[in-house]
From TrEMBL:
It comes from Chrysolophus pictus (Golden pheasant). It comes from the Eukaryota. This is S1 RNA binding domain 1. GO terms for molecular function: mRNA binding; structural constituent of ribosome. Residues 443-542 form the YqgF/RNase H-like domain. It holds the Pfam family HHH_3. The lineage of its organism: Eukaryota, Metazoa, Chordata, Craniata, Vertebrata.
Length: 758
């Protein structure tokens, strides 16, 4: 620890010595602005004092300006450890291996496959409350197929030290925005092919930010639709009259549009109704109008109400109705309602037990109508009383028939979406806590799967998770005393002093049985203790293909007892074998999006496994496939390579595995561990075999064999700063810090590990 403290102290001193003074940077910027020979004033980054264009490209800095060149050389000569906010990082690239300091990977402008009228970075920042430059960096990192564990550990400076949960939220929101953009452009191509795309409709589509807005705009143009009232009025030729009412009402004569033999134009009332429908459609699709009503709703009391459905008592079960008793007459502000209440209301509505509606006060409607008539859609000329009446009726019709239903759908959709996300996030947090439970190492355990009729299944496993014995005892059928002798004999035979009981059927009776025997010191001289563990998912796992492959000769009922014991010995290694949603630590998991739930839970498992790390030479294929960057195929290839060539000696050998390219190696290498004691023993064995073969070939001539590079272990594969310093002590007889920092490769590795563990 003394060596670690000195290394950290040296790093901090190095930072203080190399941090440039702000005054010098400012003077250089002023000198740069006063250069008369430059044809164009370059854009200067205030963080490092270098040209932004040079940062945005992988090319070397331009030498056209002498001052900039000197300045860049001064920056390149520094070993930049920036702990300021926002932190900077030296990113390596193929053309610039020395790295370049960046705050944002190319600015906040991100080019997407489908362009919209809104900036995806800004919208993503607004929805997730994350800084725009962080969102821009995350978009690029996700586009480069970087995993969340890799980004959290090795790209902290680019994401402003965000946690994995925040990254998952940004990733999900980004996928939602891309889905909206993709569907929008698909609809544009479809409408263009059908000849229905106009300039106004094209702009309205590109302004859509949610699927609800897109559905609101495109519903009238879907196949099989008879058309809206506004479309039918336009087909009758009333659109010029509606536009004239807003632009030049003095020249408008509605009587000229009357056609006695045409339905919809037979009299003045039908003509006015057609104009009214066209105006209402224009108002309801106007972006400024919708933005105003949304801002107005944010300032008012909007509540969601639920009541007992009238037909629920006839078609539903009384028990189901009683479950939703508190929601029979329920009302709450949409800003204060809890997520679990939204999910409960939605479930009751799906079961046709509850009716739900969003209540918007009349004051919102009155203020909205006044604003539309007097400000937003105020005619450019004087309006006759009969035309003013049409305008007012159009605004009220737009609100009642088009805008109010849209707002209700938006509120319900946002509340449901937020509730589902919170439910999934809670599931993820509970799952992470369960997976990262402290293991019980070095003990022989007896797993007990309790039961009544079919007995209690027993399984004794060794400290290395090997199955020593399995049996069935009937503790709750009048044979408890006789079975106690069998249990005592097994505990003494295998020196087992820890009993693990599943929390399923007959759990409390089994617990009382063992507690009574322990209190009577029945298992003396063993000091036996017991614990209760969740057995959720054990039955499903016992009949899964993975369990059949791992324990082919064991009865499925006994496999569950083995799983229960291993959950205490190594929770992470055992629980990853079970599909996360079967563990049962979530809320309303069957009501949320199953795609979102699976993606989030798989990401949490990957995060936990990567956080702990795995010993690549002893871990199972199921555990290995959850490492960041790996999948089932790559994990299987690693296991096959290990079985064919023996254990891995260092990380470089991973590149020899089929399917592990440079990108995959970058993502997974930092989360793989190597047991150095085991590797040293293996290397000594290989070295002895190599020496024996060499001596047989050369006869009496003896020469010192040179081990192959593939059989040389790397002490840094332990990823521990203390062990690295101990290695330096062995090499140099004492910890020579100047030796460490004089070697750029060793220094960069130490810095990376220091930033990971600090």
């Amino acid at each position: 620890m003394c060596g670690l403290f000195k290394a950290k102290q040296y790093l901090n001193n190095k930072v203080q010595l190399q941090k440039p003074k702000e005054e010098n940077v400012g003077s250089k910027l002023n000198t740069l602005k006063q250069m008369p020979v430059l044809p164009k004033k370059p854009e200067v980054c205030p963080f490092q004092g270098v040209n932004v264009k040079n940062l945005e490209s992988d090319e070397k800095p331009s030498t056209s300006a002498p001052v900039v060149e000197n300045q860049v050389k001064h920056e390149k000569s520094e070993e930049d450890f920036a702990f300021d906010e926002p932190p900077l990082k030296k990113m390596k690239s193929a053309t610039s291996p020395e790295g370049k300091p960046v705050k944002s990977l190319g600015g906040n402008k991100v080019k997407e496959e489908f362009e919209m009228n809104w900036d995806i970075v800004q919208v993503l920042s607004d929805r997730t409350n994350v800084e725009p430059w962080v969102c821009a960096n995350l978009i690029r990192l996700f586009k480069e197929e970087n995993t969340i564990p890799f980004i959290v550990r090795y790209r902290k400076e680019l994401i402003n030290n965000l946690e994995a949960d925040a990254l998952r939220e940004v990733q999900q929101t980004l996928e939602e925005l891309r889905t909206v953009a993709k569907k929008t452009h698909t609809m544009i191509q479809k409408l263009k092919k059908e000849g229905k795309l106009s300039g106004c409709l094209f702009t309205s589509l590109l302004n859509c930010r949610t699927l609800e807005e897109l559905d609101h705009v495109t519903t009238p143009y879907k196949m099989g639709s008879k058309g809206t009232k506004a479309q039918r009025a336009k087909q009758l030729g009333l659109e010029p009259a509606a536009l004239s009412l807003l632009q030049s009402p003095m020249a408008l004569n509605l009587f000229s549009y009357i056609r006695p033999n045409t339905k919809g134009l037979a009299n003045i009332q039908e003509v006015e109704a057609g104009v009214q429908h066209i105006l209402a459609d224009i108002f309801a699709k106007d972006k400024d109008t919708l933005d105003f009503i949304r801002r107005l709703c944010q300032q008012r009391y909007i509540c969601i109400q639920s009541a007992l459905a009238k037909v629920s008592s006839k078609n539903s079960n009384e028990k189901d109705i009683d479950k939703f008793q508190i929601y029979h007459e329920f009302s709450c502000n949409i800003k204060n309602i809890q997520h679990h209440q939204i999910l409960a209301i939605n479930r009751g509505e799906n079961l046709k037990i509850l009716t739900v509606k969003v209540n918007i006060p009349d004051g919102v409607k009155n203020e909205f109508c006044w604003w539309c008539v007097n400000e937003r859609w105020r005619p450019k000329q004087f309006l006759k009383p009969e035309l003013m009446r049409i305008l007012r009726n159009s605004v009220e019709d737009a609100y009642k028939r088009l805008i109010y239903p849209l707002l209700c759908r938006e509120f319900r959709s946002k509340l449901t979406s937020d509730a589902e996300k919170e439910s999934v996030m809670m599931f993820g947090r509970n799952l992470r806590q369960l997976l990262l439970t402290s293991p019980v190492r070095g003990r022989t355990l007896m797993g007990v799967d309790p039961g009544y009729k079919h007995g209690c299944k027993l399984a004794i496993i060794s400290p290395t998770s090997q199955i020593l014995h399995t049996d069935i005892v009937y503790l709750h059928s009048g044979q408890g005393f006789r079975e106690a002798e069998k249990i005592k004999r097994l505990l003494l035979q295998f020196s087992c002093s820890t009993v693990v009981i599943g929390n399923g059927t007959a759990c409390r009776e089994t617990e009382a049985y063992f507690a009574d025997l322990i209190m009577k010191k029945y298992f003396a001289p063993l000091d036996v203790v017991y614990c209760i563990v969740s057995e959720a998912g054990a039955s499903i796992y016992s009949v899964s293909p993975e369990a059949s492959k791992e324990m082919p000769d064991l009865d499925p009922n006994l496999r569950s007892a083995v799983s229960i014991a291993r959950r205490v010995q190594d929770p992470l290694a055992e629980l990853v074998k079970i599909e996360p949603k079967h563990i049962g630590v979530g809320m309303y998991q069957h009501d949320v999006s199953q795609t979102l739930l699976k993606a989030t839970l798989d990401s949490v498992v990957e995060e936990c496994v990567s956080f702990v790390g795995v010993d690549i030479n002893i871990c199972s294929e199921i555990l290995l496939r959850h490492i960041a960057g790996l999948n089932a195929t790559r994990a299987r290839n690693i296991i096959e390579w290990r079985e064919k060539n023996g254990p891995f000696i260092n990380r470089e050998q991973l590149k020899e595995v089929k399917g592990l390219g440079p990108k995959t190696f970058q993502q997974c290498a930092g989360f793989i561990r190597f047991n150095q004691d085991y590797i040293k023993t293996f290397c000594r064995t290989k070295k002895g075999q190599s020496t024996q073969l060499t001596s047989e070939k050369q006869g009496k001539k003896k020469s010192k064999p040179t081990p192959s590079a593939s059989y040389q272990p790397n002490p840094l594969d332990q990823t521990s700063v203390e062990k690295f310093l101990n290695y330096c002590k062995k090499v140099k007889k004492k910890c020579n810090y100047f030796f460490i920092f004089s070697d750029n490769n060793l220094f960069s590795l130490l810095r990376q590990e220091y930033l990971s563990f600090r």
